[in-house]
Amino acid sequence: MFLFYKKSFIKAVCFLLFCITTHAQKKQLVDYVSTLQGTNSGWDLSYGNVYPTIALPFPVHSWSPQTGKNGDGWKYTYKATTIRGFQQVHQCSPWMGDYGVFSLMPVWGSLKVNEEERAIPFRHANEIAKPSYYKVRFDNGIVSEITPTERAAYMRFSFPKEGDAFLVFDGYTKFSSVTIVPEQKKLIGYVTNGTFIPKEFKNYFVIEFDQPFAGYGTWSNEGKTITPKNSSASGEKQGAFIRFKPGTVVQVRVSSSYISPEQAALNLKQELGGFRKFEEARQAADKTWNTLLGRMKVEGGTEDDKATFYSCLFRANLFSHKFYDLKEDGSPYYFSPYDAKVHDGYMYTDNGFWDTFRAQFPLSNILHPTMQGRYMQSLLDAQEQYGFFPTWSNPGMSGVMIGNHAISLLTDAWMKGIRTFDPEKVLQAYFHEATNKGPWGGSSGREGHEYWFSLGYIPYKEVSESGAKSLEYAYDDFCGYQLAKATGNRFYENIFARQMFNYKNVFDTTVGFVRGRDKNGNWVPKDFDPVEWGDPFTEGNPWQWSWSVFHDINGLMQLMGGKERFNAKLDSLFTAPNTVKYGSYGHEIHEMKEMVLQDIGQYAHGNEPVQHAAYLYNYSGQPWKAQKQLREIMRKIYNATPDGFPGDEDQGETSSWYVLSALGLYAVCPGTDQYVIGSPMFNRITITLENGKQFTVLAKNNSEKNVYIQSAKLNGKIYDRNWITYADITNGGVLELEMSAVPNKERGTGPDAVPFSVSLNH
């Protein structure tokens, strides 16, 4: 009997230990994320053009290892073999550059401060790259670790036992001021660098170390001048260094603020003051990301599918950056990049709306309505401070790209019930936007607005990228019309109703494509070729741009000759030879190369104007083609590797497309309350909403082959439409889909199944 109990006890203990071990080894959602996704990029070919971001969701500051030279937009490239620093970063695109940058770099043995000379070889096998934790063991034995908060970071540097240990501070490309305070084991100062910044801009920093200094000094002149024991330096490209005893493991806490040195110190206290050790800060960062990622729980699919999904979900939750700090009482305030004054309230930045109005903001409206409400008011605040809405802030106004898409963001929020702002003020501001040209580039105000209201289109050669601007302005004016109509403002409703159909004026029915048109009404050029890129189109050709009529697919369909011809042309988009003619560019740009490599006809997913195209079969009576095509796109051109994106990631746009499409939904026309149905990647995805409710997309019998929807139910009732509403999601419920390897060519083909088009719903 005793032996029996003894054996039973041993079995119970073993089972308990097994359970404990299994639980301890259970994969966290953050473990699925690879921040190296998309880092195998350069100016000539983009698989994402991102860096391995170390950050919390929508942070003020992010962090990254630096392989490229100071000022290089490609701050980290996967093919690089050395790291020269660990930067505080804010960059939303390599084409825009960074601002407010400084870095720290461990150096062992002899002091080297020049960025080339201090670079240390590393191998990816010795690198861990997660949102909440980055670690690299250099070939010389130094170990560097970083974990983030919203406005600060905790770092740890472990040096080999033999040889001097240094940390080098680099003030980056322009002005920097640094003061060493040895008795407090601290560096303080500020940097001023960036392109789109007011002259008053400063990024104040405070850096605290937990180990005493064995020596210190400053450096300048690209490292040619080193001044030991000097405790302060100010000027162009200034730096500092700290020496520690051999074998030191030094913990570093760093924080900064755009408002004041005092606020930088307060940020350090508020965000890192509760952590005694590095591991505590890391656990808190893990928890933050696991909580957010867990709000979109996927079931089914392969481990690779989950890695792709959660890596994209991570990227979709980084931009826009917060641009405000919190006072001691918790209230927000910010230094404005628009008027260089300090204001109470919220501000956000680092986002190009030409990219992100399509998917990133519609996804955030589902996941983060409170933040979106604050964001929308901040757009009005920015407009009041500068005179125009931001279109691509980095952090201030740039005017890069085309269109006036702040109105898309504001209208989309309003139509989805996010109503934290005054629509009358929005419409007044947008009317000013549409009837004036701002001081910056093509999207600051409306370039060619005189032609827009007189001719009904932007004429070729009178204004660059005229065809693309005509399409974008028509959509934006639809958003103005939609907001005015929804709020009972007949004055602005009538104004914008006149322009929202102007897309028809750049569609040539004789060739079946959009094209350039001169001010006399003539189609140009005469030797039209739809595979030719460039002017009158932005980073694309007529094959891609002809579908950019988000608000009136029905009207576009009629221009193309009806459903049959529309479907035939849409089929051809995905099957036509992927021929490229350089056109006005005169040479290959990376978007061209990416389209050819993706090998999906003239469909160029790496650039935004055509990313909605596969969903358009839902408007033309053949939704099963959308289901098949979308699954092929997701599987073919997305993964969690350094080659993981089909072009520029663009502040969460390309990743948000994947997240929404993997969910089986997409906002073809932001500015309405609809999400169009595609084909979900997983057996089940459950969204936990801010209001505590859950919405589930359940795809029964889903598999790599079973991509077609046989039947659908919404909350238990047969559902034949090819779209659902935002309220369907936020009210909670279940969209239940029966999947099959054979298309159902009857479901979703009736007139009530068709998503919104303004010519049908006008």
Which terms summarize this structure?
single chain, 9-stranded antiparallel β-sheet, globular, 7-stranded antiparallel β-sheet, alpha+beta
What would you note in describing this structure?
This protein has 762 residues and is an alpha+beta fold. The chain contains 21 helices and 38 strands. The chain has a 9-stranded antiparallel sheet. A 7-stranded antiparallel sheet has the order 1-3-4-10-17-14-15, with no helix packed on it. Strand 27 (507-508) and strand 28 (513-514) form a beta hairpin. Helix 8 runs antiparallel to helix 9 (406-415), helix 9 packs parallel to helix 12 (466-486) and helix 12 (466-486) runs antiparallel to helix 13 (490-497). The chain is globular. Mean pLDDT is 95; it is low at 1-24.
Radius of gyration: 27 Å
What is the average of the pLDDT values?
95
Shape: globular
Helix content: 25-40%
Order of the strands making up the biggest sheet: 6-7-8-9-18-13-12-11-16
SS element count, helices: 21
